[in-house]
Amino acid sequence: MVRRAKFYDPSGNLSYKADNCSPVKSAADAGELELTTLARDAYPGKKLGKSELAGIKSIGYWNIKRLQNWGLEWHTNEGIEICFLESGDLTFFLGDEKYDLSPNQLTITRPWISHKLGNPNVEVSKLHWLILDVGVRHPHQDWIWPAWIILNPKDLEKLTLYLRQNEQPVWNAIPEVKDCFIRIGKVIKEGGEKDYESKLRVLINTLLIALLEHFQEGKILLDGELIESRRTVKLFLASLEEHYNEPWTLPIMAAYSKLGTTRFTKYCAEISNCTPMEYLNRVRIGKGAAMLLSQPGISATDIAYQCGFSSAQYFSTVFRRHFGKTPQTFRSEKMKNEK
Questions:
Q1: Which of 118, 241, 286, 317 has the highest count of CB atoms within 10 angstroms of its CB?
Q2: What is the C-alpha end-to-end distance of the chain, expressed in Å?
Q3: Taking the model in full, what pTM does it have?
Q4: Stretch 66-78: mean pLDDT, rounded?
């Protein structure tokens, strides 16, 4: 349940950094909930050893007995996240959709799917989860499962297909899935340095087999467009609404999306009728215009830098091209009209 945040490395590489999910950890430390997890990196819980359960980012459950004063805001994860609600209620948001989860329901989200929990606070609930990193951050990338996943190649290929080409977020869990999650939680709670890894490997593989059978019985519809490179670019362009002020260049945008610059530019033009830098400037100018009106005490130069422009002069040039007037004139005219 950890949020994944982007950051820019001055060396020119974009990477991912997991936040520490402080609301969950703080509530657990304060005795407001029971948090029983194994985790690595910044995910809260007992830390897994370097060689233990490779690919597992977080596995376990929370048990909340009273309404909390926090919620998990919009976030993504460093792997595929499978959650199972054993008891209680929980509000789950994905995109424009709101789901009121009830006991024995599953949610499945991919690393590029933003979601949040709580309305606005997290409800009384017992929630189990598994976050497994399969080496992807974008829809078009090939999945690489950890070596200890022992499904035969044919079954693993089927499971991957179902998880890649269908993004139904909420499912009713079959008894086998429920049983696996409850047993996983029990193994983690009982601890023991001797044999918990072997038990968890068996249970996680059993869980994946149960999910495969569940998908096969459900006769779900597959959509090949969900794994196309074009969708990766579309998701990236949408993310610029939040990350417009990072020092993007065409090579960095393409590298972030794990695509070559030519393909990235081609898909960007198909989606937006703009080059990548034109689209970025369009987003930045929109943000700048809003800031000029909502923050009258801040100079146009400061706004230029806050929006990611390299200079106030370039900001003014792009702004004039877009609105037909300088930032200063735009601000003064708008504010005069509002009086």
A1: 118
A2: 47
A3: 0.84
A4: 91
